[in-house]
């Protein structure tokens, strides 16, 4: 019995593959459409895509085009071809603005770009693009059932930009480019006022100011020591029991000692 069942499965698969290959070569677009729908419903999205690609130009403007281009977009999405999915979903929204699927397509189009966003340490061009697409979706469909997920995704993407900006600023401190570090930390704190990295950013800004000051030529040292002193005060104001307190206090004692030289 098991052998018979296995044989029937093999025969069914063979027939299915044979029918699919015939559909690929068939000039009958209706037959192609039926097979593409069959492949889509069976979750065989890569095979469906090959047929949709053949059908796209023939079905534009036809009654079944809306269904075809929705399945086409979904097939790219299901196969994780997110650039193509984003493009196709956007084209669907533009072509069928009254479709009952338009909000879903608009969201998935924007969400597809978020799937292309890399880890924070890499170039964030795709992250910025995804944020723009998602914000446009939120603005256009503020009452959509997908808005909550869109907002959650925006928060995650902003987190990548935030982490990237913080690590860039800290990187300047690491390589002893203290002038650039001060500018980068100022920009970071201004751009992300509620960041969870604020304590760290304030300390490394202080450290950058401190290192720049104590290694300065005499003509610039006093001014830079005052800058460091102010950075220390900002850190303490933000969190008086900071995890960097011991180190920061020791540095500040050095700053105050060095400043006394300019008051004599």
Automatic annotation (TrEMBL):
Keywords assigned: Cell outer membrane, Membrane, Signal
Native organism: Flavobacterium ginsenosidimutans
Name listed for the protein in its UniProt record: Outer membrane protein assembly factor BamD
One of the Pfam families matching this protein, by short name: YfiO
Transmembrane parts of this sequence: none
Encoding gene (name): bamD
Domain Outer membrane lipoprotein BamD-like: 31-218
Coiled coil: none
Keyword Metal-binding carried by entry: no
